[in-house]
User: Fold Cation acetate symporter from Paracoccus aerius.
Amino acid sequence: MSQFTLNLLVIGASFALYIGIAIWARAGSTAEFYAANRGVGPVMNGMATAADWMSAASFISMAGLIAFTGYDNSTYLMGWTGGYVLLALLLAPYLRKFGKFTVPEFIGDRFYSQTARIIGVICLLIVSITYVIGQMTGVGVTFSRYLQVSNSTGLWIGAALVFCYAVLGGMKGITYTQVAQYIVLIIAYTIPAVFISLQLTGHVLPQLGLFATHDASGMAFLAKLDQVVTDLGFRQYTGHHNSTLDMVLFTMALMIGTAGLPHVIIRFFTVPKVADARKSAGWALVFIALLYTVAPAVGSMARFNLTTTMWPGAQAGDTFSQPAVALSDIESRPDLAWMRNWQTTGLLAWEDKNGDGLIQYYNDTATEGPAAEMAAAQGLGGNELTTVNNDIMVLANPEIANLPGWVVAIVAAGGLAAALSTAAGLLLAISSAVSHDLIKGTLRPNISEKNELLAARVSMAVSILVATLLGLNPPGFAAQTVALAFGLAASSIFPVLMMGIFSSRVGKEGAIAGMIAGMLSTILYIFAYKGWFFIAGTNMLPDTPDAWLFGISPASFGTIGALINFAVAFAVSAVSKRPPAHVQDLVESIRVPRGAAGAISH
Assistant:
């Protein structure tokens, strides 16, 4: 059986499972569409939350970022995991106790203002649409390789699948589908990691293999990886090279952005009571940790496998003891079929610049060390592996390591499960904001439940279309795009939720001014360096560390935006009237433990 046929069977079986679950769990009411009728148990909700949370950025892109940058990109692990702890401790139980369906609904009621609710909707839409672009990017990458279709065709296939089960099932269908998707993605992530860890270090657990001895060389694995990449002129894998200030701000942006993500927050509205929200958070952390503790090993081993494929001598001895990969070998050798396969996607490319029939992979800007000496002695024309997209590393790693075909097929299904599960959650958050907060909450308060449900489904369908169109031209690879969404959530949604729960002094004027100031400052900073709507050539300033204000990258500015949000909100509230007495009492009632059994309900 060919690899393509195997991929098709495994991916097709997973799709059939998702659609079957959606038909079985079809939402018949707005309560089921928005919050699964608040009937999801803590363990199942924890698993669904983990799937919702672990997106294409976690599954596909994060290990690729770690693979090529090393220690510095551990910020993704620290920020995303730490942010989830903030969400679990500071927001989720209190928002569930408030008992609403959506984040903008909480903002509107807590700050007694339809204007605040509408601004909350706008912030949610900006964050969620930016985030969902990253998911669709991951869908396109996966489909383009494993189903041998173009990136755009892959996007439309993924959109059609999400349409089938998200529009039909709403939160009820999405919840049970995400449970299935979690099982698929965690199996797909860990099985190849176990195989590769055994190959390189002899350890079954990749978490241990990362710190074990590399079998072929007898060196510690990370030390061997450092040697290989530095010999080739690249930066030390385990070293710290970036700005410490930017690293701290970026980690904080990811943390508070995580805690402000509306599609994750609404998952805690699906459990029967407040105590279950806390239990769900604990279970979700367990399920997330199963992948996140493996990711550093996956990234480092992927980098090692790629490098030693290009320079076989690096596996055990001298980096340059054997010639680089020959063009003739790429065309003929089965173990290099992965290079041919990924070349067709445009995400991997090479060029024989000096016409010697070999493809050299090294840092051609190095001025000293083995790489520079090799270039001087052999007259090499520069790095000839011209494109290696970060998003391919997890997906290509099983092929690079020559793992069995069924493992490759499972990884393909897992990548799609990760991207689609989060895309569905984001699209639900978008459609709920439009149908429940804009249409029912503002434009047509007397709309019937049947028509509201229809509006929710129509708005989700439109959201899928918009997300797909935007995903055709993303601003970067999956994790880059997602990082921008976290910055936007950090600067707009997280502060207003924190102040809404923990400060009875902040009123509607402060909340509105804070959200506007935080979101606008972050958007302007991002667009100044990334361009308006990410159109090439529209950025006002070069997107380089030297040009960034105080060395703060666009993805890190969400922390500054959050501080601006807090400062403006408190300053405006200080000169405004105090919130009404019933609102202050409401704030106090959210935090006190007497409602732990779920006293406040919708």
